[in-house]
Structures are given as C-alpha cells and as structure tokens.
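Teaching assistant's notes for section 4

Start the section by putting this record on the projector. Ask students to predict, before seeing the second block, whether MIP18 family-like domain-containing protein will look compact or extended. Collect guesses on the board.
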Amino acid sequence: MDQDMRDSMMGALEQVVDPELGVDIVNLGLVYDLDLSEDGFAVVTMTLTSMGCPMGPQIVDMVKRALYELPEIEEVDVKIVWQPVWGKDHMSRYAKMALGVR
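Reveal the predicted structure now:
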C-alpha cells in the first residue's frame, strides 16, 4: 500500500471519534496498523482504551463505515488486539491537550 492510500485511510479514521473521550481514534493512538490488499481488502489492527470498553462494538462499526467511504475499499476487517497495551504515551499532543493529560 502506498503512502497516499495509507494517508487516506488514516484521514477517514480521524472521523471516528471515541464516544466516551470525544477524541478521534487516530489521535488517541488506538490504530496500530493498516493494510490494504490489491483487491481492496482492508485490515485495521487497533486496540481500545480498556478491555471492558462498552463502546468497542460501536467503534468497530464506525471504523468500517469510515473506510467504506473510500472507493478503493471493498471489505474491512477490524482486528482488536491488547498488545501492546494502550496508554497515554500512544496519544498525540493534540489528544493529550484535548483531554488535559500531561
């Protein structure tokens, strides 16, 4: 996958806002990896802020909807992983400022 496509996918994922925190999943650092096959099969490897996150299924659904907006994407698989464990060090400067995290 080329950098332009990766940027397009990340841009689409920036529209997915964690309903509890009010910050998008990219700036929260929840997206660990993206892959896109030649035939339009996208795989998103990501985590959630906590294992018991009640918004997990809703966030996965929003990720799929955001990526289906891109014409190159035919199918989306979202893999939720727990390693590496998410922490505030994964967050962008913007997310830390928005949430008042130091």
